[in-house]
ATPase dynein-related AAA domain-containing protein (Rhizochromulina marina), 135 residues
Amino acid sequence: GREVEYVSISRDTTEADLKQRRELTGGSSYFVDSAPVRAALHGRVLILDGIEKAERNVLPTLNNLLENREMHLDDGRFLMSPAAYDALLASGYTTEELERRNLCRVHPDFRVVALGLPVPPYPGHALDPPLRSRF
């Protein structure tokens, strides 16, 4: 009964594909959030299909989002874990101040499901151990 965001991972998937893309409308450009960012902000389930195909340059971004609930976005925003965001609120910052600083709270209901093939002993690349331990 939860909303889902879906990402198909391939060898061509880049870090930018997991964060934001730039679009042009009416002669001006702006950033559009990708599925992982939308899932994190709105508490949706993120499905990563083909996780074993992720290239090494993409793994740190995925791992940081999974482990720390943090991600720096190209438009200047920074996603941060609910606990860290709430700690800032408790220390005296207001929500408006944090929004002015481009800090965004990851929703506590954000979950990730990764679909992939178990590689060894099958042909293919093994998952990065830090990433594998998240699942």
About this structure: The longest strand covers residues 20-25.
